[in-house]
Amino acid sequence: MSRLEQRFADLKAEGRAALVTFVTAGDPGYDTSLAILKGLPAAGADVIELGMPFTDPMADGVAIQLASLRALEAGQNLKKTLEMVREFRLENDTTPIVLMGYYNPIHNYGVAAFVAKAKEIGVDGLIIVDLPPEHDAELATPAQAAGIDFIRLTTPTTDDARLPKVLERSSGFVYYVSVAGVTGAGSATTEQVSSAIERLRRHTDLPISVGFGIRTPEQAAAVARLADGVVVGSALVDKIANAAHPGQAVEDVLALCGDLAKGVRNARVS
Fold this sequence. Notes:
Elements: H1 3-14, E1 18-24, H2 30-43, E2 47-51, H3 62-73, H4 78-89, E3 97-101, H5 103-109, H6 111-121, E4 125-128, H7 140-145, E5 149-150, E6 153-154, H8 163-167, E7 174-177, H9 190-201, E8 208-211, H10 217-224, E9 229-232, H11 234-242, H12 246-265
Parallel strand pairs: 1-2, 1-9, 2-3, 3-4, 4-5, 6-7, 7-8, 8-9
Helix pairs in contact: 2-4, 2-12, 3-11, 10-12, 11-12
């Protein structure tokens, strides 16, 4: 089993959802970002999405756009992001890491070189928001051939006619974007999330993680009662943006992660 399969299987056996945390690699600088990355599992993160900074993050809201800019201005690039994963794996060989971002940096790096390096250092999955299934040959096919999961995004506007195509070669888990729009924009109601998950389960046996607009332990708990995973990104990234110094950034992100983890882990406790 892959790390993602193992993690979701273990959590299903425990009777709880996964806390999936997103941070941007290199934000606000390499050392601080690496300290946050290394600290997330102990703070309660079950799966980590690590954003690959990009100059034109069109699917992201202001918070993550600014995080990308901070990281790029600090000198972050794809090579350094892969190095961060390598350093993380020296201490942690169990927490799944998913790289999330856009295709352009990978294309520039070279797909074959990227896939080989990602596999070597322990990347478990990819979420590439601007590569639809029609372009699987670009990256999804070689990544999955190397044993790296390719995780698809589904949205409220992905109808039943489109879903089979989107999910056909998905692996790892399905990321349900619970609101139409960019990251950090609004949140869906419990009823909307419940209905969406019910519909997705008719099309796939993969774990379903729900993200976009989840900022508090209470919101995380509400989603954790329904989904297999709860994704939180912008709320964590905001802690970095609002920190007075790097040490505070680390402390505040990990503290919020801990609070979110309590919400998720207690969600199904009667």
